[in-house]
């Protein structure tokens, strides 16, 4: 069984020869080869240039031979420039000012026209790497809108941003629904043009919402995103949902049209597998801080995760959140040895 078959089978709740594994943020800051490349190229160049994008995407595959999926090097904010907002990276994120009146001037978003880079990279990777799973991704409307309204990363836990949303519910939902159209288009392009075998949506900041507010703001927009994605996709591919710190929302999230849920490191993997593993593939959920200590401690933690996951089909090993820049290569290697048995 090759890596692509292993990932796709697990997402479809089918038996596999061993536990499939990949890591959120596996391509990027913890790799010295990435940091060297980043010194000479801006972040947007790294995303938009096909050669740079594919090189970065494949760096962890070349270093860690047992990783089963290549997730495209991109960013959840890629729709924003086409909608009229400059996005700058470095020492945080800075985004042009947003006003709800801007929505009247937003163009009708087309991923192929306005933000084709992730799909282009996926297509290029597939030309020479047909045995590894290719994963696309995008940010959910709620999380993307948090950054847009906040103007980047300056509003800690988005207190002021959420206050603006709650004070302007109609305008906020209009924003979220328009963002859903763009995100759904991005995901579909990564399947139709890029050839993605699966896609993941990230709702990193959904956990800031109460159940009531998630039902009012986050869930309808995510549901619309998935509807647009399913409608525009020419192939049926699995969709994975990840939201950090969202255990209180999981009942709502499981009602979405998703194929897999990726768990935070604080979630109870064993309980989720026992209760919901027959209906939904589950991914996760090693605490990413385990990659910062000793390799033996990382390996023992991975062993516990695997034990909690059990042997039934429908499981993919991953982190409970993405790699931080300080993650140690020797810890990653130790975890991979534990997961793959090699």
Shape: globular
> What is the terminal separation in angstroms?
15 Å
Biggest sheet: strands, sense, closure?
A: 7 strands, parallel
CATH secondary-structure class: Alpha Beta
SSE topology string: HHHHEEEHHEHHHEHEHEHEHEH
- How many E strands? 9
How would you write the strand order of the largest sheet?
1-4-5-6-7-8-9
Number of helices: 14
Provide the structure class.
alpha/beta
Number of domains: 1
Rg, Å, rounded: 19 Å
Provide the CATH topology: TIM Barrel
Low-confidence stretches: none
Question: CATH architecture, please?
Answer: Alpha-Beta Barrel
What is the mean pLDDT? 97
Beta-strand content: 5-15%
In percent, how helical is the residue content? 40-55%
Characterize the structure shown:
With 342 residues, this protein is α/β, with parallel strands linked by helices. It is built from 14 helices and nine strands. The protein has helices spanning 3-11, 32-38, 43-48, 50-63, 111-114, 117-126, 141-150, 159-167, 169-192, 211-232, 250-253, 269-276, 295-309, 329-340, and strands at 69-71, 87-89, 93-95, 133-139, 198-202, 239-242, 260-262, 281-286, 315-319. Strands 1-4-5-6-7-8-9 form a seven-stranded parallel beta sheet. Strand 7, helix 12 and strand 8 form a beta-alpha-beta unit. The longest helix is centred in the middle third of the chain and has 24 residues, at 169-192. The mean pLDDT is 97.
Element layout with pairings:
Layout: H1 3-11, H2 32-38, H3 43-48, H4 50-63, E1 69-71, E2 87-89, E3 93-95, H5 111-114, H6 117-126, E4 133-139, H7 141-150, H8 159-167, H9 169-192, E5 198-202, H10 211-232, E6 239-242, H11 250-253, E7 260-262, H12 269-276, E8 281-286, H13 295-309, E9 315-319, H14 329-340
Parallel strand pairs: 1-4, 4-5, 5-6, 6-7, 7-8, 8-9
Antiparallel strand pairs: 2-3
């Amino acid at each position: 069984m090759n890596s692509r078959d292993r990932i796709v089978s697990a997402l479809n709740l089918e038996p596999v020869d061993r536990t499939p594994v990949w890591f959120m943020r596996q391509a990027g800051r913890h790799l010295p080869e990435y940091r060297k490349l980043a010194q000479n190229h801006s972040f947007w160049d790294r995303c938009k240039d096909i050669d740079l994008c594919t090189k970065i995407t494949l760096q962890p595959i070349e270093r860690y031979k047992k990783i089963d999926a290549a997730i495209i090097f991109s960013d959840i904010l890629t729709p924003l420039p086409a909608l009229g907002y400059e996005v700058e990276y470095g020492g945080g994120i800075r985004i042009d000012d947003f006003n709800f009146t801007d929505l009247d001037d937003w163009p009708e978003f087309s991923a192929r026209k306005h933000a084709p880079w992730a799909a282009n990279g996926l297509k290029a990777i597939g030309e020479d790497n047909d045995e590894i799973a290719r994963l696309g991704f995008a940010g959910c409307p709620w999380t993307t809108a948090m950054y847009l309204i906040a103007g980047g990363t300056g509003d800690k836990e988005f207190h002021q941003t959420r206050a603006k949303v709650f004070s302007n519910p109609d305008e906020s939902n209009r924003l979220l629904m328009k963002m859903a159209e763009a995100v759904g288009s991005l995901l579909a392009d990564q399947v139709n043009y890029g050839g993605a075998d699966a896609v993941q949506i990230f709702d990193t900041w959904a956990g800031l919402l109460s159940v009531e507010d998630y039902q009012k703001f986050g869930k309808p927009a995510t549901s619309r995103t998935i509807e647009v994605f399913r409608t525009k996709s020419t192939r049926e591919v699995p969709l994975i949902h990840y939201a950090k710190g969202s255990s209180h929302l999981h009942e709502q999230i499981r009602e979405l049209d998703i194929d897999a849920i990726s768990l935070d490191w604080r979630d109870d993997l064993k309980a989720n597998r026992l209760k919901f593993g027959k209906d939904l593939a589950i991914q996760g959920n090693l605490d990413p801080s385990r990659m910062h200590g000793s390799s033996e401690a990382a390996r023992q933690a991975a062993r516990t995760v695997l034990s909690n996951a059990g042997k039934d089909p429908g499981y993919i090993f991953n982190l409970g959140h993405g790699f931080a820049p300080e993650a140690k290569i020797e810890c990653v290697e130790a975890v991979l040895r534990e997961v793959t048995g090699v």
